[in-house]
Amino acid sequence: MVKMCEMCGGRRAEKYCLVEGVPLWLCVKCSVLGKEVTRPRFDAVALAARRKAGMPPRNEIVSAIVPDFASRIRNAREKKGLTHEELAARANIKESFITRIESDKARPDITTAQKLEKTLGIKLVVQESITPGKDGTAQSKTAPALGGVLTMGDVLKVKKD
Fold first, then answer.
1. How far apart are CA 137 and CA 148, in angstroms?
2. Beta bridge partners of 126
3. Which CATH number applies to 69-122?
4. 39 pLDDT tier (thresholds 50, 70, 90)
5. Neighbouring C-alpha atoms within 13 Å toward the C-beta of 24
6. Residues of CATH 1.10.260.40 domain(s) within the chain?
7. pLDDT category of residue 49 using cuts at 50, 70 and 90
């Protein structure tokens, strides 16, 4: 399939360029408007290449929520003498959600956990390094309740600048 120029819509796109910070496939004529850059490689492609070369996969830094988050939140709230309603107001989270989190019926996302960390002065989110397993799963020491396997809800990729 022939790529068309993403700027003019015509001609054959041959160059991958940055135009005002936006990566685009451009024809030769339009490519003078931007700076040619190397095409990005996707993580899956890089991982396959590293495995084929016999190299170990790269570790990734992720944020994960501690497994005992429910008891940590409950204990910290009680220690500060806050009700569910007061904690909800301070952290800007629904009271019903806090109740479900404390009873271990719901799992907070990273952003919610960070709000609770700040409000209660506790540690709920940890940074860790994970390595993709051969079966495509990511192994983690932070999620023993799941057999050490992280789910999409447990992690957030941290962008390295």
1. 10
2. 64
3. 1.10.260.40
4. low
5. 21
6. 69-122
7. low
